[in-house]
Amino acid sequence: MGHNTDLLSKETILEVLKTSNILGGLSDETLSKIATFSHEETYQPGETIFVEGDVAEELYIVKEGEAALDINLSTRPGSVRRGTVDTVFPGEAFGWSTILESRFAMSARAVSTTKAIAVDGEALRSLLAQEPQICAVVVRQVLDIASLRLSHTRTTLAHFLSVASHDLKAPLAAVQSYLQVILGGFVGELNEKQKEMLSRSCVRIAEFIEMIDNILDISRFEVGAVEMQELSLTEVVRDSVEMLRPLAEEKKLNLTQDLPQEMPKIKGSAIRLKQVITNLVGNAVKFTPSPGEISVKLKEDDGYLRVEVSDTGVGISTEELPKIFDEFYRGVAGDTEAKGTGLGLSISKKIIEAHGGRIWAESPCPETESGSKFIFTLPKDKA
Length: 383
Ligand code: ADP
Known about the structure:
Elements: E1 4-6, H1 10-18, H2 28-36, E2 38-43, E3 48-50, E4 58-64, E5 67-76, E6 79-88, E7 93-94, E8 107-110, E9 114-120, H3 121-130, H4 132-183, H5 192-223, E10 229-231, H6 233-250, E11 253-258, E12 266-268, H7 270-286, E13 292-301, E14 304-311, H8 332-336, H9 344-354, E15 358-362, E16 373-379
Parallel strand pairs: 11-13
Antiparallel strand pairs: 1-2, 2-9, 3-8, 4-7, 4-9, 5-6, 5-8, 10-12, 13-14, 14-16, 15-16
Helix pairs in contact: 1-2, 3-4, 4-5, 5-9, 6-7, 7-9
Adenosine-5'-diphosphate binds next to helix 7, helix 8 and helix 9.
């Protein structure tokens, strides 16, 4: 690996161990023991300390300089990008996969000239196995560090998403409005062929913008927090269904809804729940040929409110049923449709689960013995 191993007095090593966030709480006696199987290493700027997937043989504590922790992100088959998850500074530890006797979960590289104390993994593990008290202290500190790193990663991701959503959508929105100006005939006459190609471009760009929104939605749910307010599910269902009525009528489908007058209020996000219902009803419209029926029902169950969306459409095969809620999954029916990203149902699932509910599908719909039926439940407000 091309690094130097410096011979260093045990005193200096001891000092670094003592002030580190991972071993700091241990007694002088224990730390002296650990110092006997630790040594110092020096890395040049840019030098790799270890690679993700390597067997973790040493735990590192930074003495001087800084190291970046990277993960490999595979955005599509054959393309791997490096993403920096965290930077570790003097006193901080990295490479704790060593404690678990596993492989490194990340790569580490020196950012500037970096000196680190490397603690021999095998010796450390056997010490932890023999001394439960020491093990308890170290595990508690590892957990503290890990939860700090997690919250750091979440903030980074949330920030990245808000920047990415703006940066990706702004140029597309600009192109879209130029196209609309040209299509409107404001900068000169267009022939039929040109009009047709431009309007197709407009549709594709609108789909692209929607896809970016969907992908960002997925990641946002990983980050957490949906804002909940008291709401009437009856209103949410009615609004969503009415929004899609023109689409159903255009396809000559009969869209009915069965909503009880009285319903207990629930806590939830009206915008997000609308997104789920329009996704389900939108799919029902998409996958039902004319003549066909789509029905939306709202019911009250023990402890739950229940929404059912049934259609008399093409249905979903038994093999496909378990997969349709997966990210990017598009079924046989989905593939024959030009529109769609295969993200709708996985986003819906995340939304319903964030509300403490469940969502699933049945096909054929048990009542009509045709098409499909999507059901979701939401817990009633306990207050
Ligand atoms: P998309 O509609 O963008 O393909 P979804 O996540 O909304 O993605 O749906 C995933 C797949 O589930 C669809 O591609 C389709 O094969 C299937 N599907 C969803 N809803 C229905 C339905 N009502 N009837 C038949 N198939 C459906």
